[in-house]
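<context>
A single protein, sequence plus fold
<entry> Chain with its tokenised backbone below
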Amino acid sequence: MEEVIGKAHVSTTAASAAVAAPAAVCLLTVWVVHARHFKRDLAEQLPLPLAAVAILGCTFTGEWAVLAAGPVAAATVAVGVSLSRRPAPGAPAAAGPPNRM
């Protein structure tokens, strides 16, 4: 808050990093502890580490850093959910509803 109104004694980049770095560490921790053990393939493995790097990159967007990190996190969730809904490789195709004629 103090950085936004111009009374902080840190730069915008430092204030942005104070938000982005813990968010990136959180994503990497979830990946290390949980996701890398339960994901099926590389496509499911990559979203969390890539999002961590992207959120760290948001640090350098100046005053927009926190606002830019939000869509990155939301997109990460959307991609993760989409990838987890794919059928497993080699699984039979899902059958449609039965014919009722």
About this structure: Residues 12-38 form the longest helix (27 residues). Residues 58 and 65 are 5 Å apart (CA to CA). The helical segments are 12-38, 42-45, 47-58, 65-84.
